[in-house]
Specification:
This protein is an alpha/beta fold and 331 residues long. The protein has 2 domains: 241 residues, Rossmann fold, CATH 3.40.50.300; 49 residues. 52% of the residues lie in helices and 15% in strands. It contains 13 helices and 8 strands. It has an 8-stranded mixed sheet, with helices on both faces. Helix 1 crosses helix 13. The N and C termini lie close together (7 Å).
Length: 331
């Protein structure tokens, strides 16, 4: 992966404001990273079964399961983390108490514990992800070449990733402290990158900029910015500039419609006026999008643009987005 922007990154954390297509981008990134014969794990933590929906699969169980074959070979595995099962694994790993843990689950104490201390739930989730990043097979090699984490929205990504440090501070000794420090070590290492997904709209862009600032302030490693659902401009920039300034020549457009045989007489004038209004609206939107691009550029992160898929995001569209990422150097 030496020819990519993130050749040294093994944990790709993908976050974004709700509605920006965060899960779609995470899935496409996993496909892109797996291309060429690599093995990638895509992890979901919010319990929405979004990965299963994107890959058109039944709900995923709490196990790592192959869900797709990447372009040019390579496999994408997926894991929908269940905090309760993660806690049972944790109890088995550190205390040898899996059976006792199941008894506690039946009594509702596990859910009680993660409700009283919600940060502990995040520790379990990030811990499972970090374990997958560090895991090695019998041959001593990493089991996964990369792990993609479909993380919580931008508004709470910093607390989600930084909660292990808080828990480690509360637990002075013992397995919880050891576990928390391991997770924190992975999350804050140069092998991790927090990527942001946004749209070219004011609110998502502002939340992205705020999220980047918070992640940096917490000492977490930032990655790139994926601008999703970008609509290609159908008109030359000179025409857009003219339309924004309100100087678009309706008369010239009317003559063009007549010359093309599209309409004639009063009908051509009416159609030209309607088209001129649409062109002006398109130009204003393009101007706003250009301003949002400029705002994102100030963050100083590598940017990638993904097209708006006219037919929605199906499997074919997912592969198209993955190819776009690869062409832009993201994977």
């Amino acid at each position: 992966m030496a020819d990519t922007d993130w050749a040294d990154v093994r944990l790709h954390v993908v976050t974004g404001k709700g509605g920006t297509g965060k899960t779609t981008v995470a899935a496409a990134l996993a496909l892109a990273l797996a291309s060429g014969g690599r093995k990638v794990l895509l992890v979901e933590v919010e319990g929405r079964q979004g990965i299963a929906q994107i890959f058109d699969l039944p709900p995923l169980p709490y196990e790592e399961r192959k869900v797709a074959v990447a372009p040019s070979g390579g496999d994408v595995y997926a894991l929908a983390i269940d905090p309760e099962e993660a806690m049972l694994e944790y109890m088995e790993m550190f205390y040898g108490m899996r059976r006792a843990g199941r008894a506690l689950t039946k009594m509702g104490l596990v859910d009680f514990a993660t409700t009283v201390a919600p940060g502990f739930r995040d520790v379990l989730v990030t811990g499972k992800t970090s374990e997958a990043v560090r895991r090695r097979g019998k041959n001593g090699r990493r089991v996964y070449d990369a792990v993609v984490l479909d993380a919580p929205p931008t508004g709470r990504i910093t607390r989600f990733l930084n909660v292990t440090e808080e828990v480690a501070g509360l637990a002075k000794v013992g397995p919880i402290k050891t576990h928390s420090e391991m997770v924190s070590g992975v999350v804050k290492s140069p092998e991790t990158a927090v990527h942001f997904v946004t749209l070219l709209e004011e609110m998502p862009v502002q939340e992205t900029l705020d999220g980047i600032a918070e992640v940096r302030a917490a000492g977490l490693p930032t990655g790139g910015v994926f601008v999703n659902m970008v609509r290609e401009s159908l008109l030359p920039q000179a025409v857009l500039d003219t339309a924004v300034r309100g100087r678009f020549d309706v008369g010239e457009l009317t003559l063009g419609l007549k010359a093309a045989g599209v309409a004639d007489g009063a009908q051509a004038t009416t159609l030209a006026e309607a088209l001129a209004d649409e062109i002006a609206e398109h130009a204003r939107r393009a101007e706003l999008e250009r301003a949002e691009r400029d705002s994102l550029a100030q963050a100083g992160l590598k940017g990638y643009e993904l097209p708006l898929l006219a037919d929605g995001v199906d499997l074919a569209g997912l592969y198209e987005l993955a190819e776009t990422m690869r062409n832009q150097g993201a994977a």
